[in-house]
Amino acid sequence: MNTAATTTTDEHADSHDHEHHDPRLAHHFDSHQQQFDTGKLGIWIFLVTEVLFFSGLFGFYAVYRSLHPEVFLYASQFLDTTLGAANTVVLLFSSLTMAWGVRCAQLGQSRGLLVCLVTTLACAAIFLGVKSFEYTEKAHHHLLPGRAYQSPEHHDAAAHATAADGETAAAAKEAEAAEASVHGDHGDESLFEKTKHTLSYMTTVLWGVIVLSGIAFGLLFKNPNKKTLATIAGCVLVSAIGMQLGAFSSIGYHQLGHAEKPTDEEIELAETVPAEYAKQKEKIPEPMLARTFFSVYFCMTGVHAIHIIGGMIAISWLIVRTVHGAFTTYYFGAVDFVGLYWHLVDLIWIYLFPLLYLIN
Amino acid sequence: MATVVDSSNPKSDFPIQYRELNYLNCTKGWKSWFFTLDHKRIGIMYLIGVTVAFFLGGLFAVLLRTELLSPEKMFLSADGYNQMFTLHGAIMTFLVIIPGVPAAIGNIILPVMLGAKDVAFPRMNLGSFYLWMAGAAFFLAALALGGLDTGWTFYTPYSVTTGTAVRTALLGVFILGFSSIFTGLNFIVTIHTMRPPGMTWFKMPLFLWALYATALIQVLATPVLGITGLLLIVEKTFEIGIFDPRLGGDPVLFQHFFWFYSHPAVYVMILPAMGVISEVIAVHSRKHIFGYRFIAYSSIAIAVFGFLVWGHHMFVSGQSKVVAVVFSAITFSVSIPSAIKVFNWLTTMYKGSIRFTTAMCYALAFLFIFSIGGLTGLFLATLATDIHLHDTYFVVAHFHYVMMGSSLVGLFAAVHHWWPKMTGKMFNEFWGRIACLGVFLGFNLTFFPQFLLGTRGMPRRYYTYLPEFQNLHVMSTCGAYLLGLSSALMAATLIYSVYRGKLAPANPWGGASLEWQCSSPPPHNNFDHPPLAGDPYVMESVVYNEEIGGYVPVECQGANKGSVTASGDNEA
What we know:
Number of helices of chain A: 14
CATH class of chain A: Mainly Alpha
Structural class of chain B: mainly alpha
Oligomer: heterodimer
CATH superfamily of chain B: Cytochrome c oxidase-like, subunit I domain
Distance between the termini of chain A: 81 Å
Number of domains of chain B: 1
Number of domains of chain A: 1
Shape of chain B: globular
């Protein structure tokens, strides 16, 4: 039985993972070109599935916008166009640095690659920071999806009414909300506090996710070493700083906006809802299903934000590999593929921004 | 051990037949299986998982049929019956049929057929298996957390209001969807980039064409199911008002979203089975496949049409009449590529030298069952008759003829056809054929009476019925018992062969595609030398050799004229 052929097989199986001297070429590929082409096709097909995944949400949007155009007209005015535009710019810039990073990788400029990747990561974090402020602000005004939504007109009514009227107006929850908004400036302070809480919560989650995924990567693919761990810590630091930057700039902008318009009428309105909401509200009466817009808004931007977080993890992984000098002029597929993914996430935002923020 | 034949044997010039050291035993220990990146081992793990799920789903089916022996309540309450048919449907669809042929058989065979060492993304392949496991765990959790009573379709608004474990099951569906996407993605990329020199698109075996068409559907349709499931979870949790009419949502929108995936998913189930049948019929008829290009194109055509017919599930859901007419017309046109396949298979058998091996018996059963399943689909595609037949047992019988009778029988054919390659052992043909006969008779006895019940107005999903339906229901239940026993016999025959079966030669049936060129079972890397790809259906390229008990390439046989046998082939 123990013939030449079976012995060959034996050696073959044993040496299976070591037969190529180049560790950058997986055993089942013949050449780097084949490996690269395979990955490229794979990521493109993955992007197709991503587009189709979002297509359900865009379908959701299309159906309800065509059924209830007035809802979108009314409710989109509660979104802050300036913050949305700022985020668009941030993401576009991050796409630029990502593309630049891919070029650096192709040219073998590892330092340039590192700078580009870190910048991209920071931009992603700034985006999330701004987004977290926007979410917090929406939550503060009860402009939430589904059950949690409360009409801004209820706030208005409750604010003008006495406490007794407030009871008749709605349930205890609403009265509580109205009470909070009666104290005008107080409302903004608590918004500030809420943003801080949201941020610290998000930062904690970020730490958790990135550290856990770093450990997982370390355990699965390489022995974790000090360099890897330090790089992961650096990525988390960059992300945390970026998020703080995004969120506190948004708060600054928001407070600036309030300080500019101190007329009596506006102060009165600001006690109930922010001035820009109140102005628009007078033009268009609130439609029946205004909250459906916030369902659409939170579903779409929420799923998009999850993709941003996924991208941040992928970019952090690239940074770790870059620090280890994994990429060369003939092996840069991973950078290219994460780059394509990042451009798609960017592109989806390019569609989300006008569809949600720029109605009317 | 003594039967190993290899190139060092001075008497013969044959390739290695049975291989002592193969992918199954080249490394040992549970870790070498659970962390393996070898597509064959992942396929075997899928096969085991699918088999376990199949018997669980089958157990539910048998319990359901037992309850239906009598119009009175026997042991299941109405709620219990709801939960049981829901889990039967969900497990059979998401855990058995969808991954059955592509993920289990396809994983093992596809790279070998391509002469490749592995699929394009081995880690993603393993990941897809773990996602499958996680999805299965969520289904079991749903079972433990108070069951699920929505039907496998999760129709709103009921799924929003019911108190059962809808969210858990939907998370399971979501995860299983990604498992399916990863398998599909892997297959598309593998077929595109890893074909060997000489294998052009039109020299690929038809099984690969079928898997390719399947993978396209998996990749393009499944993400929509993913987001739909997610939105339904969000709807149920936060009441966002997308599908729930109380909140201004549109329940028919859910049906559109759901069937945009789930109708193409029907072709995920049937297309790979069709690919299997193309292989099995050609090999076991010892004849070149008839109408190769037509079969290949019809696979793609079915995949394309599959995306355009989802509305035929909603003829009575209140969609516009124009839309219904269009969907009806496109649904009819799906029968064209399906019929092309059936005619080509029949013509392949014409004047072939057909051997009634177990795999071929299953293929013949497939032809019979699929023809009935396909033709009864036309009754349902016709708007007027569908009004009468909608939500009756006729629908149940129709989709069991297609999904169970065709897809699973295709899977059985595939398992028997490639069993010697997967395990290196020959099963007992006698018991295999007996089991096949039992499956065929049991299946038809179970589901043919349901066509009659349906036309007489027996609605689906009821745990009770009018007394005049009892005879047909009892027939159906007897058939289900026979089907269950035969499936168990099939499993027993196969498992027995692993321990006591004869060692398999490299090419026991005389196939000409690449997977028959490597030893049984293949070594870890599939091929010692990169194989040369030729026409996969030139059966004359191999001849039977008695000494080995299998087929060898003509060149080798020529060098050993002493052992040439006619072997009953009429290819001359």
